[in-house]
Design brief:
The complex is a heterodimer of chains A (about 270) and B (about 350).
Chain A: H1 20-37, H2 42-63, H3 75-91, H4 94-104, H5 107-112, H6 120-146, H7 155-182, H8 186-202, H9 218-223, H10 225-237, H11 244-269
Chain B: E1 2-9, E2 12-20, E3 27-31, H1 38-45, E4 53-58, E5 61-62, H2 67-71, E6 74-77, H3 89-99, H4 104-117, H5 133-144, E7 151-155, H6 163-178, E8 183-187, H7 190-196, E9 199-204, E10 207-212, H8 214-220, E11 224-230, H9 236-242, E12 252-253, E13 259-264, H10 270-280, E14 285-292, H11 295-303, H12 323-338
Parallel strand pairs in B: 3-8, 3-9, 6-7, 7-8
Antiparallel strand pairs in B: 1-2, 1-4, 4-5, 9-10, 11-13, 11-14, 12-13
Helix pairs in contact in B: 3-4, 3-5, 5-6, 11-12
The chains are: A mainly alpha (about 270), B alpha/beta (about 350).
Chain lengths: ~270, ~350
């Protein structure tokens, strides 16, 4: 409490706050808020990684012997891409909780009172979540390799599969972002995001062939965008033809991203609360 | 600065045509109980909320028409310490500086400067999660000052702080006031507004019901009070009659006690004069004293309700809803009747 500053002299600001460059820089500044924190809370990263690793091991060893899927001799080759897909989708729920927290702690108000590009709060958050998801994925991939999972196709196909996975998860990060800015509390955000993500990922081809499901459930499972993405990813990792699944999955990812990014940003920046 | 601000949430009228202006370099206190509309007013001025009617200008910039430009002129410290717990104090400041579009070097320089100014140098490299409540609030205010705002908004800066941190925060805000930071302070604490604000606007149910300096407001309810403690409560009526010629308004017996309070214009020589009067009237008294009316008295006089519960006072010797308040209320009523 020493120096007294001149009240009238504004701080030296760099030119106008508008412009694409500033918007991108704001996004990066916001992303770095979360990325810097990532290594400081290793427990968060650890738990978000331990859970999928546990899933890989549980499904592979507990159900692996009793589940048969047509077209796959080794259940692991079928299962593991499904678990990858489910895990990155679970990873997308962090956005809901994180944004709800920003809102309830007044951080969102503080940020919105700054002359910044407001959607940067959401874009930076989703980008940081993408990076976190990538880290989780790498750990999970290592465990999968350790228990015998292999890329049966080319490295290019495996890379394409991985990118599709992350793009799909990114799209759902925006769904969760909308949830996060819409619900009132962190607790609500947490349970709300898991309420739809569980059925979405289980009523799908992630763990079993949908033809084994009851007849009323099967069409739902088959047309679930998550099934489409899982099938495409699975085909690519196994060196098989992904066919229309690949483009459909991509279209879903892009479509969801655009629609929900728009809705979430509009909700976040609205001046009605 | 704010003209005719109105805002309705469903059935609730949060603000009904509120006007106020802050002089450059001064501290304006918006005083009112919970739910009076203080935060709504702040949110409108900070571009977070659009009013249904009215306009608000900051440095001549219309906050509704040009929120982005207005945002470059304001600093907001909300009701909760909006610090990123996972970052250090320094990083928090730097982060806000960068979003304010300061040059990287300027953001760092300002961050260091503000850590020093708010006594946070030593903890500047610790993550904010480890900070005490008072430290968080100081960091929070520092963050809202990083862009050298024309107006600083402090929305209930001491709510939820322990008494010691609260006093610390008062020092910080007083220092800001002395340094010439134009500030809008909202508070539900009368003593806080009394101590920190140059001018006070009292808000209740979305309306500005009074304005002026703390002294102006106190004068409106009688300024100074004489309290007489009687040996026999039955003498109260006689005492009030005896002292009426010295009083601004009729005195009043405090129910259930042997205390009589009398509002007076000037305290000079009043105690001996009162003692002489009482002695001449043959009244036995235990004590005669004086005190200034507090903002609690003012609030009671204006709204007919005591200032919200016991939280508010703490340092008012008489406690909330004091006898003086009731007295002041009757006095206020008389003043209104006269005018």
């Amino acid at each position: 409490m020493t120096a007294i500053e001149s009240p009238t002299r504004p701080a030296v600001r760099q030119e106008t706050p508008s412009g694409l460059v500033w918007s991108i820089r704001d996004c990066w500044t916001e992303a770095s808020r979360h990325l810097r924190a990532l290594p400081r809370n290793p427990e968060v990263l650890a738990f978000s990684t331990i859970q999928p690793v546990m899933f890989v091991l549980l499904f592979a060893y507990v159900f692996g012997g009793s589940i048969n899927v047509p077209g796959y001799d080794d259940y692991n080759q079928f299962l593991i891409p499904g678990i990858f897909a489910q895990t990155v989708l679970f990873g997308s729920t962090f956005a809901a909780v994180g944004l709800a927290e920003d809102l309830s702690k007044g951080i969102a108000d503080r940020l919105r009172s700054l002359p910044m590009f407001e959607p940067a709060v959401l874009i930076g958050r989703t980008f940081a979540d993408l990076i976190r998801n990538l880290i989780t994925f790498v750990v999970m991939l290592a465990v999968a390799f350790a228990i015998g999972f292999r890329f049966e196709g080319t490295l290019g196909e495996a890379l394409a599969a991985t990118l599709l996975l992350l793009a799909f998860a990114y799209a759902f990060t925006w769904v969760n972002a909308l949830l996060g800015v819409s619900v009132g509390s962190v607790e609500a955000a947490n349970s709300a995001s898991f309420t739809w993500i569980f059925p979405l990922t289980f009523v799908s081809s992630a763990f079993v062939d949908p033809s084994s499901m009851p007849s009323w459930l099967e069409p739902i499972a088959r047309n679930n965008p998550f099934t489409i993405a899982t099938n495409a990813v699975r085909a690519l990792y196994n060196g098989r033809a992904a066919g229309s699944d690949l483009w459909l999955a991509l279209a879903w990812a892009v479509g969801i991203t655009l629609v929900f990014a728009f809705l979430a940003s509009r909700k976040f920046t609205s001046s009605t609360r | 600065m704010a003209q005719g601000l109105s805002k309705r949430f469903g059935e609730t009228e949060a603000l009904v045509g509120v006007d106020f202006e802050i002089q450059r370099g001064k501290v304006l206190g918006l005083l009112g109980p919970n739910g009076a509309g203080k935060t709504t007013a702040v949110r409108i001025l900070c571009t977070l909320l659009e009013p249904d009617a009215g306009r608000a200008l900051i440095d001549g910039i219309d906050v509704i028409a040009e929120p982005r430009r207005a945002r470059a002129r304001i600093g907001l410290t909300g009701q909760f310490a909006a610090v990123e717990e996972r970052l250090t104090g320094f990083e928090n400041l730097q982060h806000v500086g960068r979003l304010f579009h300061l040059r990287t070097s300027e953001a760092r320089r300002r961050a260091r400067e503000l850590l020093e100014r708010f006594d946070l140098e030593e903890v500047g490299d610790r993550v904010a999660k480890t900070y005490s409540g008072g430290m968080r609030r100081r960091l929070d205010i520092a963050m809202s000052l990083i862009g050298r705002p024309s107006v600083l908004f402090l929305d209930e800066p001491t709510t939820g702080l322990d008494p010691r941190s609260r006093l610390g925060m008062w020092d910080v805000i007083e220092e800001l006031g002395r340094g010439g930071t134009t500030t809008l302070l909202t508070t539900q604490y009368l003593d806080e507004a009394d101590r920190l604000a140059d001018e006070i606007v009292v808000i209740d149910h979305g309306k500005a019901i009074a304005r002026g300096t703390a002294d102006d407001l106190k004068r409106r309810v009688g300024g100074e009070l004489v309290e007489v403690v009687l040996a026999d409560p039955a003498d109260a009526g006689r005492v009030i009659d005896l002292l009426e010629h010295r009083a601004l308004a009729r005195g009043q017996a405090v129910p259930g006690t042997s205390v009589v309070t009398i509002p007076v214009e000037d305290l000079t020589g009043i105690v001996p004069a009162v003692v002489r009067d009482l002695d001449a009237g043959g009244i036995r008294v235990l004590d005669v004293g004086t005190r200034r009316s507090t903002l609690d008295d003012v609030f009671f006089a204006l709204t007919g309700r005591p200032a919200e519960d016991g939280q508010s006072a703490g340092d008012s010797e008489d406690g909330p809803g004091s006898e003086a308040a009731q007295l002041a209320a009757s006095h206020q009523a008389q003043l209104e009747a006269r005018s």
